Amino acid sequence: MLVPRQSVPALTVNTVAHGSFSLLSGHAERFTMVVFYRGLHCPICAKYLMELERLVPEFDKRGVRVLAVSSDDAERAGAMAEKIKAVRLPLGYGLDLRTAREWGLYVSESRGKTSIGIEEPPRFSEPGVFLIRPDGSLYYGSVQTMPFARPNFTDLIGAIDFAVAHDYPARGEYVGEL
Q1: Across-strand partners of 15?
Q2: What DSSP string runs through 30-85?
Q3: For every one of its 178 residues, what pLDDT tens digit does the chain have, with 9 covering 90 and above?
Q4: Cα dihedral sign for 46, 157, 146, 68?
Q5: Which of 32, 73, 88, 177 is deepest in the core (most CB within 10 A)?
Q6: Do 74 and 16 form a contact (C-beta atoms < 8 A)?
Q7: Structural domains of the chain, ranges and CATH numbers in brackets
């Protein structure tokens, strides 16, 4: 289990059009937001990532570096980039499922073709959204077992504004006896 105020696992992936991405380099001013998505087969992911593509400039204004990543291969990630018309949003690919588990993500097995007629990979991670401080510690995390009802990016922008304005600490860090 990831714990706020403690280091997150390493993450280095290639992206479709923005080179290599590493949490260990290129730190953002305030946060790095990593959005784990299911892959090309997921129509909900496409809609979600289109909204994130639109809002990348708003995150940039706030000193938030953004990455969306899946376990898809380069070809499928490229197809997703085309589908959502990604220009500003770095789309990472090749997420190792062991790494996904280190991040606390759930892993699903293929059930064949989805409602849009695209075959699911044999195994893939379910969604997650994380805000990581420049020191590599977890500030915010949300993981899901399903593709539905994900964190709203506009709400996250508002939360970031509040957290920065009020120096709001990461919460959920207690790991002692209960």
Answers
A1: 92
A2: SEEEEEE---TT-HHHHHHHHHHHHHHHHHHHTTEEEEEE-S--HHHHHHHHHHHT
A3: 899 999 999 999 999 999 999 998 877 899 999 999 999 999 999 999 999 999 999 999 999 999 999 999 999 999 999 999 999 999 999 999 999 999 999 999 999 998 899 999 999 999 999 999 999 999 999 999 999 999 999 999 999 999 999 999 999 999 999 9
A4: positive
A5: 32
A6: yes
A7: 12-165 (3.40.30.10)
Joined together, the tokens standing for residue 16 give 């479709």
Tokens linked to 143: 């993981």
Q: Which residue has the tokens 């075959």?
A: 119
pTM: 0.96
Tokens (6 digits) for 136: 């590599």
Structure tokens at 88: 């500003």
Q: How many helices (H) and strands (E) does the chain have?
A: 4, 9
SS3 98: helix
Residue corresponding to tokens 């922008």: 157
Q: How far apart are CA 76 and CA 101, in angstroms?
A: 21
User: Do you know the residue count of the chain?
Assistant: 178
The strand pair at 128-132 and 138-143 is best described as antiparallel
Contact 142, 129 (CB under 8 A): yes
